[in-house]
Amino acid sequence: MGLYLFSHSLREFLRFRRIFPWVILCALGVVVAILWPYVVGAQTQAQQYADLSSMLAFHLAPLAAAIIVTSIIGQEVEQKTIVYLLTRPISRWKLLLSRYLAACIVVAGISILCTLALSIAIFHNPLRNELLVPDFLAILCGSFAYGSLFLMFSLLIVRSMIPCMLFFVWEVSIPNMPGDIYHLSIYSYMQGIAQHPVVDQQKGVAFLTGSMSNNLLTPSTSYASLIGCALVLGALSLWWFSRFEYVPREDAD
Amino acid sequence: MINLTNVSRWYGQVIGLNDVTCEIGPGVTALLGMNGAGKSTMMRLITGQLKPTTGDIKVLGLEPFANEELYKVLGYCPEIDRFYEHNSGREFVYYLARLAGYTPDEAKRRTQQGLELVGMAERADRPIAGYSKGMRQRIKLAQAMIHDPQIILLDEPLNGLDPVGRHDMTSLLAHLASQGKTIMISSHILYEVEHMTESILLLHRGRLLATGDLRVIRSLLDKHPHQVRIQTSDPRGVARELVPLPNVVSVEFMTEGNAIRLEVRDPNSFYDSLAKLVIENNLPVESLESPDNNMESVFKYLVEA
User: Which of A37, A99, A101, B39 has its CA 20 to 30 A from that of B224?
Assistant: First the structure.
C-alpha cells in the first residue's frame, strides 16, 4: 500500500500543470547560461557551470521544496481532503513517509534537471562536466534535508509555504556571513559536497553563489550533516504526525 | 459498538462536546442538532480524527484516534464538499479503495460496485470539478462504503440529493441496517431522518439533550400542548365550537388570513373530536395543519425546555 501511495503521489507531483512551471524555470536557466559570458566576461566552462549551478540549481531546491513538500499535508488540510486520507486503514507515518519520499524525489529531480540543462548549455556534452556527479549528490542530499525541514514546518505552522519560501532569503544570505553562522544553512553543506572551484568572482556573483566568506565545508562533514538533518527532522515529523490531530480548521464546530 | 463515556472536547475556550455519555448499537441512529451543536465534533471523535479532551471513546472496543485497525471496518462520509477536483469520480473512489488495502483488480471491482450502489457508475468518468452537488454527495457515499464497513458514519449525507436520490439513499441505508451494520447519520434537517429511524441522539450546544426511541420521546411530549393551525372562512364560529372541547388549552386568532391556532393536549383525541364536529356541525374547516406533527417538534420542545 505504501508503494502504491508513493507512486500515486509521484504521479500527482509530476502532473503537467504542476511540473510545467519548473521546466520553464530550467529553460530560463539555459537562457541565462547562454547569456552569462556576455555578463561576466571570459570564464572557463567549469567556472561558468559552477557559478550558474550554485546560483540557479542549488537555489531551486529550497524553492521547489518549499512549494512541493509543504503541500504534502498543508494543502490537504487547506483543501480539507485530509479527512479522506486519515480515515483509511493506513498508518499515518506510512502515509506521510510515502508522500515525503515522492516529494523529495521530485524536488531533487527538478534541480537535477536544471544542472543537466546547464551542463548541456555550457559543455554541450554533459558527460564532459566533472562537477555533475558531485552536484547530483549535493542536490539529492540537500533536497531531502530541505524536505524534512519544510515538512516539519508544515506540520507545525498553518499556511507554511510563505515562511518556507522566505527561508530562500536565509539560504542566499547566511552562507556569506562571517563567523560560524553559515553552519545553519543547508546550502553551505550542499556546497561542501559539490566542492565547486573557487576563483575570484564579481561581488554580486560571489554573493549569489554564497562564496563571499569562503566558508567551504568538507564533503564528509557535509554528507553527515545533511543526511543527519534529513533523518532526524524526518523522523520527528513522522512521530509528530502520528500523534497529533490534523483536521480542517475552518470546519471546527 | 460505539461507546462514549463522559466525553468532552474543547477547542481552546470553546466547547465542542460537553460530557456526553451514550452507546450506539446496530441499526440506524440519527444524530440531530442545529448547526454548531457538536454533531461533526462527535463524528470526528468517533472516527478518530480528534482526541477527546476528557472522557473515553471506544468503537468495537478500540480507541479510535489514528487507529488503522478500526478504519478497516469503519466508513466515513464527511460533511465537507471537497475532493481532488482534477480526478474523475472513479479515480477518486479507486484511489481510496487502494488506500483501503485492496489489490488493483479488487479495488477496480469494488469501485464499480460502489459507484453502482450510489447510481454513479455511468457518470463517474468525468472530472469531479464538473459534478453537481448531488453527484459529489454520491461519490462521497461511494468512498465511505467501498470496503463494506461494519460501522458507517454519514455526516449530513442527504445534503444536495434530489428526492429520488434521497429515496434511494434511505432504501440503501435501511438495507444496510437490516444486515446488522451500525449506521450513524447526522442531520440538522429533522424530516430527512424521520423516515429512516426511530433511534435518535439529540445534541444541543455540545450537550446530549435526549437519546433513545423517538416514539417514547414523542409520547412524553404529548403531555405538552400541541399546536394546530386551522384555516377557515369563519374563525370565530369554529373557535366557538372548539373551545368547549376538553383537550383545547388555548385559541389564538391569526392576524394573517382566516385562521386560528389552537394549543391542544392529547392530539389524537382532539383530532377525533374535530372530525366529529366537522361532520355533524358542518364546520367550515378548509385546511388543517400541525406544525408539531413531525420530529421538528421534538427538537423544538426539547431545546426550548
Answer: B39
Q: How many domains does chain B have?
A: 2
> Do B268 and B211 have their domain in common?
no
* pLDDT of B296 higher than 70: no
Question: If 0-12 CB within 10 Å is exposed, 13-18 middle and 19+ buried, where does residue A145 land?
Answer: buried
Q: What is the CATH number of the domain that holds B14?
A: 3.40.50.300
CA dist A71 and A130 (Å) reads 35
Of A5, A84, A251, the CB nearest to B143: A84
DSSP string, A63-109: HHHHHHGGGTTHHHHHHTTHHHHHTSSS-HHHHHHHHHHHHHHHHHH
Same domain, B135 and B19: yes
User: Which chain B residue is nearest to residue A77, measuring alpha carbons?
Assistant: B82
Distances (CA, A) of B138 to B123, B165, B166, B169: 11, 9, 10, 9
For B284, the grid coordinates are 367550515
Same domain, B175 and B121: yes
Q: Do B101 and A90 touch (CB under 8 A)?
A: yes
pLDDT in tens, A39-63: 888 788 999 999 999 999 999 999 9
Query: What SS3 state is found at B226?
Result: strand
**Looking at the complex, does the CB of residue A10 fall below 8 Å from at least one CB of chain B?**
no
Task: Give the CA distances from residue A211 to residues A37, A40, A198, in Å, rounded to whole numbers and listed in that order.
Answer: 20, 16, 8
Same structural domain, B126 and B234: no
pLDDT the model gives residue A251: 44
Q: Is A212 on the interface with B (CB under 8 A)?
A: no
- In contact, A139 and A111? CB cutoff 8 Å: yes
Among A52, A65, A230, A218, which residue's Cα sits nearest to residue A141?
Answer: A230
The reply to whether residue B68 touches residue A8, judged by beta carbons under 8 angstroms, is: no
Q: Give the CATH number, domain containing residue B277.
A: 3.30.70.100
Rounded CA gap, B57 and B70, in Å?
Answer: 13
Residues of A in contact with B48 (CB under 8 A): 86-87
| Residue B286: domain span | 222-304
pLDDT digits (tens, 9 = 90+) for A16-44: 999 999 999 999 999 999 998 888 887 88
Global ipTM: 0.87
